[in-house]
Each structure stands twice: as C-alpha cells, then as structure tokens.
Design a protein that fits this description.
80% helix, 248 residues, mainly alpha
Length: 248
C-alpha cells in the first residue's frame, strides 16, 4: 500500500521533487534490499525470517520506481503483486507447521519433507519463487526492475550493489529450506500429518498464480501497460519542461 501510494499519488503530485530526489529513493531501495536480507539471515524464528525477507523484496519495488522508465516501473508494479502472492504463501507455510507443532524455531525441525511430501511441494514453489527462479512469477518482476534501473545512469551504481541481495536472498532461503525440510528427520514430530483439505484450498490457488505468471507474465503486464506508460510519459514531460525552465 505504501509503495502504491508513492507511485500513484506522490509521483504525479510532486513530479519535479521526485525527479530531484530519485537518487535517494533508489538508495532507500538498496538499503531495504541489503539490510532486509542480512536481518533475515540472522533469524532463528521462521516467521521473522519471512517478515524480513518481505522488507528486502519491497526494496526491489523502490528501485524499480526510481528508474522512471517503463521497464523499471512495470517491474515495480508487478513486484508489488508478486510479493503479495509469494509472501502470503510463505506465511501460510509457516502457519501450517506452527499449527501442528506450536513452535517456529528453525532449529527445532529437520527432514519434514519426508513426512509431508505434498506440503514440501508447495514449500519448494514458494521458496524458489521468493528466490526469483526463472519460470516462477518472482523472476520476471525482479528482472524488469534491475534492467530498468540499470538503464538509468543516475542510479546505475546503486543497482549493481543491490544485485548482492539476489545472492544473499538465495542463501538464507536455501539455508532455511535445508534446516527445516531436508536432512535427518527430527523424531520429536513423528506423528506430524500432511496437508488437510483446508490447507490445500489456501495454498493451491496461490501456487497456480505463481506458476502461471512465471510462464505468462503478459497476463498481468498487459493490464498495467497503459497506466504505467501514461505515468512515465508524464514524468518525462515534466523533466523536459523543468530542464527548459532551468536552462532559461
């Protein structure tokens, strides 16, 4: 909601100030990405790990918005939507095991994939989508953000530094996957059960959206193209007008 408000309300009302401060928006995006990733890596609580990963992923939105070009802003808007879907899946995934074990500590688990194979399938989709694996919805939005931001010379260095978040993000997600779902099974959870019908009903639609938009992102991009192009053109026209006034 915050990033949508900035893009939909603040940018059109204060276009000249936005042009002047675009470097700072990109800088805050970079801080979000790197700081969020580092905080997530330090967590032992599964839910807090997902929460800090959410902070990091919203940094991509700010970075894309700072590009002020169609590619970057489209990536930012798509990332808002993808973030909502993927993070919803991740929090539901945490809720499933918390409902059964009443703990969220990562080190309390181990090998859950053996006892919960259907659940493990949803986990794999959500985790790899969060990492930005090609073929899943998280990939195309992040790719658009970085390509668009790299095309803007004022924030190119910030964009390059921000790519570190992709590597570190993959690190903490795969580490969490290994600690909770792979390796030796913790006998303490011997009686744990796989997903029930209610949990299938929650996770299956989100999984379908993640895969569908990963394979066919145009379904979402076509809906937003007109609005994004209008905003980008407006910002460009303001920049040209402002430059002419300053030159005068």
């Amino acid at each position: 909601m915050g990033t949508y408000g900035i893009l939909r309300v603040s940018f059109p009302i204060f276009p000249e100030i936005t042009q002047q401060l675009i470097w700072y928006i990109a800088l805050f995006g970079m801080i979000n990405i790197i700081y969020g990733v580092l905080c997530a890596m330090a967590q032992r609580d599964f839910k807090k790990l997902i929460a800090y990963s959410s902070v990091s992923h919203m940094g991509y939105v700010l970075l894309g918005m700072a590009s002020l070009n169609t590619l970057g802003v489209s990536g930012a808007v798509l990332q808002m939507f993808n973030h909502g879907i993927i993070t919803s899946m991740l929090f539901l995934i945490v809720g499933v095991i918390y409902d059964r074990t009443h703990t969220r500590m990562l080190n309390d688990f181990g090998g859950l994939g053996v006892k919960m194979p259907a659940y493990m399938g949803f986990v794999a989709v959500a985790f790899f989508a969060a990492i930005g694996l090609p073929g899943l919805s998280g990939f195309i939005s992040e790719a658009f953000v970085f390509l668009g931001a790299f095309g803007e010379s004022l924030i190119r260095v910030i964009t390059v530094i921000s790519t570190v978040g992709i590597i570190l993000g993959a690190g903490y997600m795969l580490w969490a996957l290994q600690r909770v779902y792979l390796g030796k099974f913790n006998e303490k959870w011997e009686g744990i059960k796989d997903l029930d019908l209610r949990e299938y009903a929650m996770l299956a639609p989100l999984t379908i959206i993640v895969i569908f938009l990963g394979v066919y992102p145009s379904a979402m991009l076509d809906l937003m193209n007109t609005s994004v192009n209008t905003l980008v053109q407006f910002m460009h026209d303001v920049q040209v007008h402002y430059s002419s006034l300053v030159g005068f």
